[in-house]
Description:
The chain is of the alpha+beta class and 391 residues long. The protein has 10 helices and 13 strands. The protein folds into 2 domains: 30-144, no CATH class; 148-371, no CATH class. 57% of the residues lie in helices and 13% in strands. It has a 4-stranded antiparallel sheet, with no helix packed on it. A 3-stranded antiparallel sheet has the order 6-5-13, with no helix packed on it. The radius of gyration is 27 Å and the shape is globular.
Amino acid sequence: MRFNAISARLAAFILAFLVPAICFAYDPETKTDSASSSAGHSPVVQTVEQKEFEAGEMIIHHISDAHEWHLWGHTHIPLPVILKTDKGWEFFSSGNFRQGEHHELGVYQGTHYAYKLDDHGKIVAWDALADKPVQTASILDISITKNVVTLFIVVGLMMFVFFSIAKAYKKKPGQAPKGMQSFFEPLIVFVRDDIAKASIGPKYERYMPYLLTVFFFIWISNMLGLIPIFPGGANFTGNIAITMTLAVITFLITTFSANRHYWRHIFAMPGVPIPILIILTPIEILGMFLKPIVLMIRLFANITAGHIIALSFYSLIFIFGKGGEAFGTGIGVSIGSIAFTVFMMVLELLVAFLQAYVFTLLSAIYFGSAVEEHHHPNEDFDGLPNAQHAH
């Protein structure tokens, strides 16, 4: 009886997770031919031609940032578009790009220019009559995109969680944690004891706010990206701009926290002959800048690879199914695709935590190397002469 209940719950979880994911994986896009634009702020009417399924295009579309949030089929959540052009500001909804009965992408006539989403999802000024971009237009896009909305959601979740935990500690000081406290307290203690203290040493407390923030920010973002329905599904930490920002913050904290011993080790390593320093010093300086680059690329590549692999398994269903022409083959392939996808998603749960841990650990190691005090060769790490330990 208990086995049947567990099996039913497992099946319900798989269906709840995979059915929307497979449904969202392939949204047949359309190829449009532009016509003349109407006056004012009205969309341009265009004709529709069905496109064949392209796995690469679908995968790139799903892992890239977007000006709208795709839900299912032709249903999207429009997001605010904010443009700074050479003629002034433009504010409108991205839903204006969706036109016609099938909500195909088209041209929107704004105040200063007509605008269109190109093949890479970038907004360009468009000449509807010539059917080509306006080369002389200058556009700065600062719109609220899908990744920006995800950023707000993650920050909101973190503020709710930690303000709630802090409030609970104030209400019940010294008591055993309950509910959300009992879940997050071991993680907080883990970051403090196994990452900060072990890697930084006695000065760990000043870095705890950043280490806790970056750990939970990456972990919650990764977990949110594994949810196939809104507000999840965005490849947030697989965006190079996000990982670059986090890596730059780590680099700046390391640089401005560094003591004299750290800089001496980089520019003039003690005990190294001058001819060797000519070779070694440039390598040390290069290594100082390579550290944040490694942080940036590791997180970006691992998270993006997970999304690509999952979407690749989804694509096999449509490739072998040939758009419904080989329905039986598509069903047969879907069994293997679903099995591999379930395995990958379980593995991604581990990767989501592991990448947050690795980024936080490496940041703590960099901080520790920057504030580490110089030890005399005749002293142990506690600063006492070796002779005192002999007694």
